Amino acid sequence: MKFVFVHGWSFDRRFWHPLVAELACPEAILLEMGYFGVPPQLDLPNEPYIAIGHSAGFLWLLGQDLRHCQGLVALNGFARFAKGADFPDGVPTRQLARMSSRLSQSPNGVIADFHALCRPDIGWTGTPNIERLTLGLNRLQNDDFRREAIRWGDRLAWLSGADDPLLLPEVARASFPEESYGKFVTGGHLLPIAQPIHCATFIAAALDRLA
């Protein structure tokens, strides 16, 4: 079974290297959102695969044609991010709007502030693509794929950090169907980097449930 990985906002495909090494899956497909000077590479396979998304990458996945996908795994993921009348625990849209307005003047500053909040273990270099970054923020403000997530039922698995500074546990849990396989672990917003062994173990357990 092939694995397809989709990184989150203001990262790139290198985000997945620690986890892919733990999973020992040489045929892994690492999609690229194009936030740092390289063109997007977002083609999904025309054969069976398991899709694994981090943060906004999982939100993006839910909006795609997933006809060949056999199961979804969300790591620090969600089906909706922004606060709304029927989603009171989401992130206030004014915060995302403020980030968008700063991007054109200080893209490196916006990214640095976001990464400092996430406390990444490795840095990202490259020329920020303001258009792609802005599009990503707009998706976080507007996309709501909770209905799509519900359709996946027990074919959806999620792992979230109980100490995630961006994603309250209530937001993570409210995103996913009751039948889904999920758990909270001690950790923040970058579980695939900070805890690749734990993520690999969780993915293996999720695949066992799909078998």
Topology:
Elements: E1 2-6, H1 17-23, E2 29-30, E3 49-54, H2 56-62, E4 69-75, H3 93-103, H4 107-118, H5 130-142, H6 146-152, E5 156-161, H7 169-174, E6 181-185, H8 191-194, H9 196-210
Parallel strand pairs: 1-2, 1-3, 3-4, 4-5, 5-6
Helix pairs in contact: 1-9, 3-5
Model description:
By secondary structure, the chain is α/β, with parallel strands linked by helices. Helices cover 39% and strands 15% of the residues. The chain has helices spanning 17-23, 56-62, 93-103, 107-118, 130-142, 146-152, 169-174, 191-194, 196-210; strands spanning 2-6, 29-30, 49-54, 69-75, 156-161, 181-185. It has a 6-stranded parallel beta sheet, sandwiched between helices. Helix 1 (17-23) crosses helix 9 and helix 3 (93-103) packs antiparallel against helix 5. The mean pLDDT is 92.
Helix and strand sequence = EHEEHEHHHHEHEHH
- Summed up, the helix count is 9
Taking all residues together, what is the mean pLDDT? 92
What would you report as the Rg, rounded to the nearest angstrom?
16 Å
CA-CA gap between termini: 11 Å
Point out poorly predicted stretches. Answer: none
What share of residues are in beta strands? Answer: 5-15%
Concise description?
With about 210 residues, this protein is α/β, with parallel strands linked by helices. It has nine helices and six strands; from the N terminus they run E-H-E-E-H-E-H-H-H-H-E-H-E-H-H. It is globular.
